[in-house]
Write a structure and sequence with these properties.
Layout (H helix, E strand, L loop, with lengths): L30 H11 L1 H21 L8 H15 L14 H13 L4 H27 L3 H12 L1 H6 L6 H21 L2 H17 L6 H11 L9 H26 L9 H10 L3 E4 L2 E3 L2 H12 L14 E4 L6 H15 L1 H14 L16 H14 L1 H10 L6 H19 L4 H4 L3 H21 L6
Parallel strand pairs: 1-3
Antiparallel strand pairs: 1-2
Helix pairs in contact: 2-5, 2-6, 3-4, 5-6, 5-8, 5-20, 6-20, 8-9, 8-18, 9-11, 10-18, 12-14, 15-18, 17-18, 17-20
Length: 467
């Protein structure tokens, strides 16, 4: 783990003394030399991005083309993207139910390369996945310096199956992982350098990320609170910079609210499915039915099956008012759904609701296999094995990083931990799912490898005969 001054690469090597007037200015350096110099400084990021892109292109174009897995949620994203390309200004009541970022992005790619060009959409997702790993590695290099730690982070990212898998489906997780990784990077660079440009880029990353999954905004109050608590150690983050970061977020939310009102005549910031998700979190039912349509989260169904296999388990579904609940109306009837969730709270009491919240956090790591691989026999065992690896390797380093993050030397680690705290809070309020955690693995891996590197160096320095 290094201080901000250590990650900037240090001073240039000393050369032969010469008169300042004889040195060529930046404009006089040949373009080829400047490009080579830039590539040399960023050789790790370029290599990691190229490897990640190669792996994801092979996966998306030959092993697991996303166009061959268009069902359930993926079918919904593709259908909404296609109708957006065909008639972008049509008013549709269901358009505001889901966050719009994923199908807007898919529609943009289809509009440029052709609505039925599956190769282009698959390649685009591979490119976005590769840049996700680039941001991970860049964050690690700023946090840990230019030693072996960022190389390990980059290699893990290149081969990390959950992120590769998500890129092979038309879902929100792959682009959301990109914006989570970008937000983490710009948060650290803003803390290091205090530049206005990084404030704008941080706000843009979080604002656009909210269009894919609004839960990223839960990190904002935790980051702000941590900054207030440790502002003496984060002196380069000033209030005017935070105001600049807030502007892109506010603009995205204003557009989102206007869009929801355009389609439904009702106000909501990003999506109107928060109420039905709250029902699952507060009632622990497996299905909600509305107007002969039903919805049920795969992770809740997996938790029910776990309870059936292990009836004596401490972690179980334990529904408040039955496995299947219904309302009279549409699935986006928020008032009726909130009333249903409130009834469950009254019936169970707050102690049982607290137990639900703890269960949701555990579900981020286990008790369900990440969907959609959950229902794909060739890929389910692979994803299940990776779930086990993440459960064993990531939580303990996260706990260590959370403790260290409140020390002045490791204050930047604390900033990254706030993103994970926000994930836990969202899970407590709604429900947990390993699928929801996967985009945040871009931060968890950085923290885990850095903590392991720090402990390894301490052990080596503690060996007899070393000073």
């Amino acid at each position: 783990m290094t201080q901000p001054s250590e990650v900037e690469g240090g001073a240039e090597p000393a050369g032969e003394p010469s008169a300042p007037a004889s040195l060529p200015g930046p404009a006089e350096v040949p373009l080829r030399a400047r490009v080579l110099r830039w590539a040399g400084r960023h050789s790790l990021l370029l290599a990691v991005t190229a490897l990640a892109l190669a792996v994801r292109l092979v996966w998306n174009l030959w092993v697991h083309p996303p166009g061959e897995y268009v069902f359930s949620d993926m079918g919904g994203y593709v259908a909404r993207a296609n109708r957006l390309v065909d008639d972008p200004f049509a008013r549709r009541a269901d358009e505001a139910f889901f966050p719009y970022g994923a199908h807007y992005l898919l529609a943009a790619v289809k509009a440029v390369f052709g609505k039925d060009n599956e190769t282009a959409t698959a390649a685009f997702q591979a490119v976005m996945g590769a840049f996700t790993i680039c941001f991970m590695t860049a964050t690690s290099r700023r946090l840990s310096g230019r030693g072996w730690v960022p190389r390990v982070v980059g290699l893990i990212g290149v081969l990390y199956y959950p992120l590769i898998s998500m890129g092979g489906y038309y879902l929100s997780e792959a682009p959301y992982a990109f914006f989570v990784a970008a937000s983490a990077f710009y948060t650290i660079r803003l803390a290091d350098e205090g530049r206005r440009g990084d404030a704008w880029l941080l706000g843009l990353s979080m604002g656009l990320g909210a269009a894919f999954r609004p839960q990223i905004l839960m990190a904002v109050p935790f980051l702000a609170a941590f900054w207030l608590l440790r502002r003496r150690s984060l002196r380069r983050i000033r209030l005017p910079l935070l105001a600049r970061a807030a502007i892109p977020i506010a603009l995205v939310l204003a557009f989102s609210a206007a869009r929801a009102r355009y389609h439904t005549g009702r106000f909501s910031l990003v999506a109107q499915n928060g109420a039905v998700n709250r029902v699952f979190g507060r009632c622990h039912n497996v299905k909600v039915e509305a107007n002969q349509n039903w919805f049920g989260p795969p992770s809740i169904g997996d938790l029910q099956r776990h309870e059936q296999r292990h009836p004596d388990s401490i972690v179980k579904l334990d529904p408040a008012m039955g496995l299947e609940l219904s309302i009279r109306g549409k699935m986006w009837d928020e008032d009726k759904l909130h009333k249903l969730a409130d009834r469950c709270i009254q019936k169970t009491g707050w102690l049982k609701q607290a137990k639900y919240a703890v269960t949701h956090v555990l579900m981020l790591w286990w008790y369900n296999v990440t969907w959609p691989d959950m229902g794909q026999p060739p890929f389910r065992p692979i994803m299940r094995a990776w779930n086990g690896v993440t459960m064993v390797t990531l939580p303990l380093p996260l706990a260590v990083a959370a403790v260290l993050g409140f020390r002045r030397r490791f204050v930047r680690h604390g900033l990254l931990v706030m993103f994970i705290v926000s994930l836990f809070v969202v899970a407590m309020l709604y429900f947990g799912d390993t699928r929801f955690r996967v985009p945040y693995d871009t931060i968890l891996i950085v923290l885990a490898v850095d903590v392991c590197g720090c402990l390894g160096r301490r052990l080596l320095n503690a060996r007899p005969g070393r000073s």
